[in-house]
Amino acid sequence: MTTTRERLRAETLEEIKAAARGRLAVDGANLSLRAVARDVGLVSSAVYRYFPSRDALLTALIIDSYNEMGEAVERAEAAQPHGDLHARFLSVAHGIRDWALSAPNEYALIYGSPVPGYEAPQDTVAPAARVITVLGRILTDGLADGTLSDPGDAVSKALAKDLAEFTSQPPFVGVPPALMARGVAAWSAVYGLVSFELFGAYGPLGDPGALFEHQVLAIARGLGLAPAPGRSTRSRKRST
User: Fold this and answer.
1) Same domain for 32 and 131?
2) Do residue 146 and residue 218 come from a single domain?
3) pTM of the shown model
4) 100 contacts 162 by C-beta, under 8 angstroms
5) Nearest-CA neighbor of 185 among 233, 223, 138?
6) Which end of the chain, N or C, is less surrounded by CB atoms within 10 Å?
7) Is residue 115 in some structural domain?
8) What is the CATH number of the domain that holds 43?
9) What's the mean per-residue pLDDT of the chain?
10) In terms of residue numbers, what domain contains 10?
11) Can you tell me the distance from the alpha carbon of 67 to that of 32, in angstroms, rounded to the nearest whole number?
12) Strand locations in 27-95, DSSP E?
C-alpha cells in the first residue's frame, strides 16, 4: 500500500518532470535545475533531493519519451491484423510521426543533436529499443510466413559483422544480413523523414505529410512488403 509520503513524492517527481518538459520548449536540452525549481515553486536544493543532477533529470525525460513513443507505436501496430505485415509496417511509421508531431520537444530531445557532456546510461537502452523491436517482429513474422525472404544483396564482411549485433538478439534472430540491412535502412529512413519535417529542413515543401505517405509506401516496397489482397495501397489518412 502506498503511503502518503510516497504518494506526495511521486506527485512532486511528476511535477518536476512536467516543468522540465515545459523548459524543453524554451531551453532545449540545456536544462537548468534552478529554472525548473523556480517553475515548480521549490528551492533548487529541494529539486536535488529528487534529481541529484541535470543529467539525472535528462535521463528521466529521455526514458519517459522513449516509452511514450514506444507505447504509441505498439498500440498503433497492434490495431492492425497480425497477418497484414504491410499494414503493420505503415502503422509503425505513422505511429512514429504522429507521436513526434504531438511531442516535438520530446522528439528533439531523443533524436535531435546530442547534449554536450551527457552520456546516456544503461537505463535508456530498453526504452529506446521498443520501436525497433516492433519492426523486428514484423521482419521475423514475414520470414516465418513466407512474405519476406533473403533479398540476396551482397553484404560485406564488415557490415555482416556489424549486423550480427542485431541478429544475435531477439527479435532479430534468424534475419538474414541482407534483409537486416534493409530493415535498418527502412528504420533510419522513417526517422529521417520525421526529423526533416520537425526540424524544418524541407524548406518550401508545403505538404510534408504527402511526401511522408509517398515515401513510407516506397520504403515498404523496398522491404518486400505489399498490401494484403483487397486492401488499398494508400497508407491511410494523413496527419497534418
Assistant:
1) no
2) yes
3) 0.90
4) no
5) 223
6) N
7) yes
8) 1.10.10
9) 92
10) 1-52
11) 23
12) none
State the cell numbers at 10: 511521486
Closest CA to 89 of 153, 151, 134, 34: 134
Is the preceding peptide bond at 52 cis, omega within 30 degrees of 0? no
pLDDT, average across residues 156-183: 94
Nearest to 95, CA basis, from 80, 110, 117, 111: 80
In a domain, 231, yes or no: no
CA distance 101 to 105: 9
Together in a domain, 106 and 200: yes
CA nearest to 16, candidates 75, 57, 71: 57
**Any residues with CB less than 8 A from the CB of 83 and at least 6 apart, and which?**
145, 228
Return all residues near 117 (Cβ < 8 A) that are at least 6 apart. none
Q: What is the mean pLDDT of residues 68-86?
A: 97
Q: Which residues, including other chains, have CB under 8 Å from residue 100's CB and lie 6 or more apart?
A: 69, 107, 194, 198
Measured at the alpha carbon of residue 9, what is the angle toward residues 18 and 102, in degrees to the nearest 5?
20
Task: Report how far apart, in Å, the C-alpha atoms of 172 and of each of 2, 133, 167 are.
Answer: 40, 8, 5
In a domain, 235, yes or no: no
Task: State the residue for C-alpha cell 517482429.
Answer: 137
